[in-house]
């Protein structure tokens, strides 16, 4: 299928081209750090399905556009301003956004051709969702990776339960609860990236077809891997024993108490960061990560689809913890969210468990067809 003839919706926010037998996708919304809108999600899905079924395409390369004066980003996540507006106005496209985004995440994980993600700059939230399923995840010296959702009263979605829970030790709990930003070395050490390249080497990878047409999918990956460089050392490796000890505690309250009793600078900084997060959503997140550890990807995404709907509808409108978190961070920008409950001590097990009750029977679940 000729991808140039496809009907796309994002008004140029997703660019595409084919060079030789490699399809190249560029997220082209740099003024918003390439944050994903619903039309962008639909365009990505359309392109990937077309190229999946096109025998002339042997691989897909995905990158983010840059803009002078803006931070470098692969993708900073979903369009949280849209979430806020849609939740307050009752826009049904809020439901469509998450259903279609999670289906796209699953498509990428199951993609039958090499999907290569150039994870340069900011890679957060939804940006992790469209890169963690890649056959080759390339980070650079500019990579700033995180799942910071608890900072906006959400949880690490887009398959975050699945890929964070598979990090070594209790790293998944640590990254999920704190939203800690990590660089290339830690991403590689913790299984969230596959290789390192200098940011100025983009052309080396993007112009791969100049070497000629590839004889197979595997040859594309060999070409790319041969151009990877030695990765920088991880910065948080020394903290791994402490991460494993503190974040193995049974509850968020006990994790925070354990950190508070540790006088090391890392523990005190981590405790202070967690005091700013949504207490309720940290508790939901801890349950999510630990449940996901024994789940397959499809079941994890279905669980996350239940969770995200409940985030907006258990307490609808301004009462939603997520709506309040986005208000404080991105709308009013006062950085003073009014979390409810205000402390982890006042979060009850019932408050947490209600998020895990699916509003749909299995056969009617929006993601029932994922396998």
UniProtKB/TrEMBL annotation:
Start and end residues of each Enoyl-CoA hydratase/isomerase domain: 22-356
Transmembrane segments: none
Top-rank lineage group of the source organism: Bacteria
Keywords: Hydrolase
Coiled-coil annotated spans: none
InterPro entries to which the protein is assigned, alphabetical: ClpP/crotonase-like_dom_sf, ECH_dom, HIBYL-CoA-H
NCBIfam families: PRK05617.1 (NF004127)
PANTHER family per the UniProt record, alphabetical: 3-HYDROXYISOBUTYRYL-COA HYDROLASE (PTHR43176:SF6), 3-HYDROXYISOBUTYRYL-COA HYDROLASE-RELATED (PTHR43176)
The protein, known as: Enoyl-CoA hydratase/isomerase family protein
């Amino acid at each position: 299928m000729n991808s140039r003839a496809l009907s796309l919706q994002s008004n140029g926010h997703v660019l595409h081209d084919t060079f030789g037998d490699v399809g190249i996708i560029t997220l082209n919304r740099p003024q918003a750090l390439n944050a994903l809108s619903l039309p962008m999600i639909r365009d990505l899905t359309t392109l990937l399905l077309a190229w999946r079924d096109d025998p002339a395409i042997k691989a897909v390369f995905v990158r983010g556009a840059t803009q002078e004066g803006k931070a470098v980003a692969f993708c900073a996540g979903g369009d949280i301003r849209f979430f806020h507006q849609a939740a307050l106005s009752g826009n049904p496209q809020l439901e469509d956004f998450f259903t279609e985004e999670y289906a796209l995440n699953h498509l990428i994980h199951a993609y039958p051709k090499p999907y290569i993600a150039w994870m340069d700059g900011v890679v957060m939230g939804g940006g992790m969702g469209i890169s963690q399923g890649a056959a080759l995840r390339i980070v650079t010296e500019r990579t700033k990776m995180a799942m910071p959702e608890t900072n906006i009263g959400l949880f690490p979605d887009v398959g975050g339960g699945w890929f964070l829970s598979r990090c070594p030790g209790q790293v998944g709990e640590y990254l999920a609860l704190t939203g800690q930003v990590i660089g290339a070395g830690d991403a590689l050490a913790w299984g969230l990236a596959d290789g390192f390249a200098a940011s100025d080497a983009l052309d080396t990878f993007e112009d791969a077809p100049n070497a000629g047409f590839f004889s197979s999918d595997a040859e594309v990956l060999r070409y790319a891997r041969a151009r990877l460089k030695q990765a920088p050392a991880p910065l948080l490796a020394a903290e791994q024993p402490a991460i494993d000890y503190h974040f193995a505690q049974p509850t968020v309250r006990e994790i925070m108490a354990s950190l508070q009793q540790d006088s090391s600078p890392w523990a005190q900084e981590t405790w202070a960061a967690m005091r700013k997060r949504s207490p309720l959503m940290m508790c939901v997140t801890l349950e999510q990560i630990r449940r996901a550890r024994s789940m397959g990807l499809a079941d994890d995404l279905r669980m996350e689809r239940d969770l995200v709907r409940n985030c907006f509808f258990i307490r609808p409108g301004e009462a939603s913890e997520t709506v309040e978190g986005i208000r404080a961070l991105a709308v009013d920008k006062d950085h003073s969210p009014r979390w409810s409950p205000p402390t982890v001590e006042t979060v009850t097990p019932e408050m947490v468990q209600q998020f895990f009750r699916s509003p749909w029977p299995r056969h009617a679940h929006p993601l029932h067809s994922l396998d």
